[in-house]
Inverse folding.
């Protein structure tokens, strides 16, 4: 019987569905109780979207605690990093916000490492001596944050720091001393300089803080000052997918010595994409994005605000796999002039012939939509798993 079950697994692998995402549905347990629509809306479970203030723009997932963490500055002058249950959306308290201050916004974006270490940044629209860019670090929600970066982000070509806008994006990869963070930046309206802009990479300096490298020397050079400002997500420590006024871009061979990278415009983009997040599960490489509504007046959702999942096997040529609404059909939408928000992958759980994933989409001034996603790896993964199981049985028999 054991032999049959193992070989059956391999047989199933050969017949596995070639499409990596086989289901993409709202998480019935999340948000509005009893509606089964996965929607965490205004003033529900401690979530206050402040429908006219554009004040909630950042969100992250804490894999160490299975919590969704939302950067909330809905109360004027008050920053709160709010903790929500990742399954129900229930509000469970705040991080210690002692000392968080400064910037155009004192608080904007958040990113969390696999071990639970949390980083958050302010937003500055004129990165000069009077409005520095800050990154905070928490070792746990109950501990006060430390400031790990507070300064300018200089242009490696023009050797100037003022006039830059930072804080619209924040992503990380790695843990501990190997942590890397990325923040896209661009000229603000007061900048005297013009030209292509890129992103800042922050690395551990070995003394409790972060070093910064500005990457804006690209090969080839492509037009657009906003190439990486609106969304960034690491693929590897030396490559990332970004989005700006020229669509998706894939930056590879990031070199912190020369402050340079290769780049291509990724094909396959659909809609008015903004925030992005990358994940690899088995041999499935997926990129999630959100199409954000930018209207200035309330409207009923007729297809705007869409979450898309792309096949990112080749980040330079993305293939749309599935899409779903980021706001339930019929919901009155509050205007989001800044087209801000976030999309983040959550828990990954092994399941029969694949994995169950969660995905969270934040639309500023509206709410958070949670999804269940089922992923089936390519047949090679299942064949490898089957052979691995056979090898394990063989080893056990040999030891017996």
């Amino acid at each position: 019987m054991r032999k049959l079950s193992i070989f059956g697994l391999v047989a199933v692998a050969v017949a596995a569905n070639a499409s990596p995402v086989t289901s993409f549905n709202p998480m019935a347990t999340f948000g509005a109780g009893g509606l089964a629509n996965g929607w965490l809306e205004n003033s529900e479970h401690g979530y206050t979207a402040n429908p006219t203030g554009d004040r909630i723009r950042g969100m992250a997932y804490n894999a160490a605690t299975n919590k969704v963490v939302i950067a909330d500055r809905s109360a004027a002058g008050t920053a709160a990093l709010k903790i929500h249950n990742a399954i129900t959306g229930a509000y469970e308290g705040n991080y210690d916000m002692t000392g968080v201050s400064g910037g155009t916004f004192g608080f904007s974006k958040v990113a969390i490492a696999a071990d639970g270490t949390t980083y958050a940044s302010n937003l500055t629209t004129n990165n000069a001596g009077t409005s520095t860019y800050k990154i905070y670090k928490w070792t746990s929600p109950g501990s006060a944050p430390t400031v790990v970066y507070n300064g300018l982000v200089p242009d490696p070509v023009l050797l100037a720091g003022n006039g830059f806008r930072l804080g619209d994006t924040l992503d990380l990869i790695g843990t501990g001393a190997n942590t890397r963070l990325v923040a896209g930046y661009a000229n603000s309206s007061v900048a005297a300089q013009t030209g292509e802009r890129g992103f800042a990479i922050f690395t551990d300096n070995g003394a409790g803080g972060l070093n910064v490298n500005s990457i804006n020397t690209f090969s080839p050079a492509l037009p657009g000052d906003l190439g990486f400002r609106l969304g960034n997500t690491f693929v590897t420590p030396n490559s990332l997918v970004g989005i700006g006024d020229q669509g998706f871009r894939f930056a590879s061979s990031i070199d912190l010595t020369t402050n340079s990278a290769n780049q291509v415009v990724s094909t396959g983009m659909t809609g008015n994409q903004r925030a992005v997040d990358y994940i690899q599960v088995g041999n499935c490489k997926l990129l999630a994005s959100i199409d954000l509504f930018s209207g200035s007046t309330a409207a009923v959702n007729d297809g705007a605000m869409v979450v898309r999942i792309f096949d990112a096997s080749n980040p330079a040529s993305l293939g749309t796999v599935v899409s779903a609404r980021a706001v339930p059909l019929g919901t009155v939408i509050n205007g989001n002039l800044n087209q801000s928000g976030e999309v983040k992958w959550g828990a990954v759980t092994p399941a029969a012939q694949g994995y169950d994933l969660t995905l969270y989409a934040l639309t500023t001034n509206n709410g958070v939509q949670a999804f269940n996603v089922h992923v089936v790896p390519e047949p090679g993964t299942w064949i490898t798993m089957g052979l691995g199981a056979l090898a394990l049985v063989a080893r056990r028999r040999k030891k017996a």
Q: What stands out?
A: The chain is about 10% helix and 45% strand.
